[in-house]
Design brief:
6-stranded mixed beta sheet, Rossmann fold, 8 helices, about 25% strand, alpha/beta
């Protein structure tokens, strides 16, 4: 089976007023269909930059990257992925339904198709009945679920998520982690997920990519042995704790290599 996302010898250097910044160095990675891959590492290690390369929002300086066998730019035009940012980014003057419809309107879906898709994704993220509410009437966690619904509305195979729960408190975050796993199980999407949280990375992922400080390199790739069904209390299991230790060791090793 050919990988959905493939990066080979990927390098990216930003030119800034203070001189070049080497953001990614020699990144090699394959992500298969249906994988849930978390990227974890210190601030500024290139996690988000790599996600943006997958999305065609940044252009690598050298190396190759393909998404569904296409260049990231071609994949973007083919609507291969939905993207969820750190902030929900909902327009305050549009209802929740209106926010979710926005990409569908831009893409030219018919009114009836838009309505069907909005109601289906609201159901998926457990927000049925909130279509006519405005963002300010929803909690932070609900706004982020609406943002996920918007990214799912046009039914892309790949979901790219850049620290979507980073600003939420731990209780809400735990709940959304559970919901995201259920959503992933139902939709079978391929997910790339950036996080700073070791427990979040271990709980959610089939594969954890540990990155080193700038220039961002992959210091470890951990294939999770945890079952697909994961109640929250799996975090107390010896297997979970062992993977978390390995992630922590990878982060430490990355620092000492840097």
């Amino acid at each position: 089976m050919s990988p959905v996302i493939s990066a080979t010898n990927l390098d990216l250097t930003f030119e800034t007023n203070d001189g070049p910044v080497h953001a990614l160095k020699d990144v090699n990675l394959e992500i298969n269909k249906g994988d849930f891959v978390s990227f974890i590492g210190p601030s500024g290690c290139g996690k988000t930059t790599f996600l943006r390369c997958i999305a065609g929002l940044e252009t690598p300086t050298s190396g190759e990257i393909s998404v569904n066998g296409m260049t990231p730019d071609e994949a973007r035009r083919a609507r291969a992925y939905g993207y969820v940012f750190q902030a929900a980014g909902l327009y305050p003057w549009r209802t929740i339904g209106g926010n979710i419809r926005l990409p569908l309107e831009i893409m030219g879906f018919s009114k009836s198709d838009q309505a069907d898709r909005v109601s289906r994704v609201l159901e998926l993220v457990d927000l049925a009945g909130f279509e006519k509410k405005f963002p300010w009437q929803l909690s932070g966690g609900m706004q982020q679920r609406a943002s996920i619904a918007r990214a799912l509305a046009f039914d892309a195979d790949i979901l790219l998520m850049d620290e979507p729960f980073g600003a939420l408190d731990e209780i809400v975050r735990d709940h959304l982690n559970e919901q995201l796993l259920q959503l992933w199980a139902r939709t079978e999407k391929t997910i790339g997920f950036v996080t700073h949280s070791i427990p979040e990375a271990v709980y959610l992922s089939t594969k954890i990519v540990v990155m080193s400080p700038r220039p961002g390199r992959i210091s470890d790739v951990i294939d999770s042995p945890l079952p697909k069904e994961r109640p929250l209390d799996i975090r107390d299991s010896p297997e979970f704790i062992e993977i978390a230790h390995r992630v922590r060791d990878g982060l430490r090793a990355g620092h000492s290599d840097g």
